[in-house]
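User: Hi! I'm a student and our assignment asks us to look at how structure tokens line up with a sequence. Could you show me two examples?

Assistant: Happy to help. In each example below, the sequence comes first and the structure tokens follow. Example one:
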Amino acid sequence: MNEIIMQLWTPELQAAFSFIIVCLVILYVLSIVWVARDAYMRGSLWYVWAIVALVPLLGVIAYCLLRPPLLQIDRDEQELEVAIKQRELMKYGECAACGYPVESDYVICPNCQQRLKNLCNVCHHALDPAWAVCPYCATPVAAHKGAAKSSARRASNRTRS
């Protein structure tokens, strides 16, 4: 039996077997390197996963099953997108009467027709109720109220005449 095995164990078969062993060792080392690098890019403890990957085949399978779903750069990008969307939403507000979402330059709520802001009579920009002066044309807000009353008086006087 040993003679048959020795006859089959030719130098070519020995070289093929050695080649396969070398390829498996290279694949094993590369899998450990891949696990460590991927774990580092995903923001987890790469050195712990590299130690786990030392267990042939089972370590790599365990890492593939338990690794974080996103790379660290993808997580950072998602957080940045959420921050940008929150910042865009801050441009909008809600109607105090009905809670309907309104933009910052709305004068009246499109849902309940509640007056949100006054209009400047000179430049026709929306004015915040707390403002004492129009920031666009520097007209005092008190003058707006007086101008509105005087223009209403003029209009009523014209209709009477």
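Example two works the same way, sequence first and then tokens:
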Amino acid sequence: MIKSFDHIQLALPAGAEDLLRPFYIMLGFAEVPKPAPLVGRGGFWMRAGDLNVHFGVDPTFAPATKAHPAFVVTDIDRLSDRLVAAGHKIYWDTKLVDVCRFFVFDPVGNRIEMIAG
């Protein structure tokens, strides 16, 4: 039976690690070391609080434009301003009247949802 959530994995094309790191650091993640046996595969791992995201190289990479992680954030307006200032386009969604959220695409095109919490 499922007990808890360990991590999510997002794909990236080979060589895009340095493109993605600053974006996820801007979201509040910090890089953590990958176990030595996995380092040769490329990619990297990040953590924010109890959330773990593993970025894995996919030789047939296609961005996830529908499937996506949704992160709860403490100051959604500040994060939105920071992302826009860095050149990222924000897509606010008001379809759920009780949920303040926006979508953004990371530098390789993966869809990410941010929810005020």
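Here is something you could point out in your write-up. The chain has a mean pLDDT of 96.
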